[in-house]
Amino acid sequence: MTHYVHVPLPYDFSALEPAIDARTMEIHHDGHLGAYVRNLNALIEKYDLQNLPPRAMDFVQAFHRLAADVPDRDRLRFNLGGVANHEFFFSILGKKSAAPGAPLASAIDENFGTFVSFQNLFQKSAIDLMGSGWTWLAVDLASTIAQPFPRLFICNTSNHDNPLMRDVFASPVMPILCLDMWEHAYYLRHQNRKTDYLAAFWCVVDWDRVDTNYASVLHS
């Protein structure tokens, strides 16, 4: 039986300051993500789910099939998304790079006009999100075949839904960047000032990691 591990942050709680304060990171990672991991594992045990993928993100992708008969399917989906989305979010934060590499930068320019235009559209999508959820930059997998630049698009998901969940999009997509728009991600420092949180986010995006995510899509 698969049990998911509460993966440690790849950096100290204070590593993203002043953009994201250490106390927010501690509560976010240890408190919120920790609770989702515990809840997910409890549901896995309760329903005796077998042969699950070792990565939560892979379980998300196959959720419609592997959890088809679970009575408490919505609760399982919520906590699974809480684990997978948070792990993905924490993985793309850091202070290693200030801008995307040439392949992704060219794709952003092709799809959005300029990098600044992309940022503005991403921010608008995040601000327009009603309630709690996530804002994503994703690749349309169908567009990677015989195309010089795949189609990139910005989207929101509610609660802890993930673009990989089969019922979120009709065609297969792959996220390469995301932003947590739950209040617990920003309220301790920024309260209701979402635009301040968005400005801080751009200061700590690890574009090296996002570049890696993008390259893995192209070569998969």
What report would you give on this structure?
Helices cover 48% and strands 10% of the residues. With 220 residues, the protein is mainly alpha-helical. It has a three-stranded antiparallel β-sheet, sandwiched between helices.
Topology:
Elements: H1 22-46, H2 56-61, H3 63-66, H4 73-91, H5 102-112, H6 115-128, E1 133-140, E2 152-158, E3 173-180, H7 187-190, H8 194-203, H9 207-218
Antiparallel strand pairs: 1-2, 1-3
Helix pairs in contact: 1-4, 5-6
Summarize the main sheet.
Answer: 3 strands, antiparallel
Low-confidence stretches: none
Distance between the termini: 28 Å
Based on secondary structure, the structural category is mainly alpha
Helix content: 40-55%
Give the overall form. globular
Mean pLDDT: 91
Number of helices: 9
**Could you give the order of the helices and strands?**
HHHHHHEEEHHH
What's the number of extended β-strand segments?
Answer: 3
- Strand order in space, largest sheet: 2-1-3
Strand percentage lies at: 5-15%
Q: Any idea what the radius of gyration is?
A: 17 Å
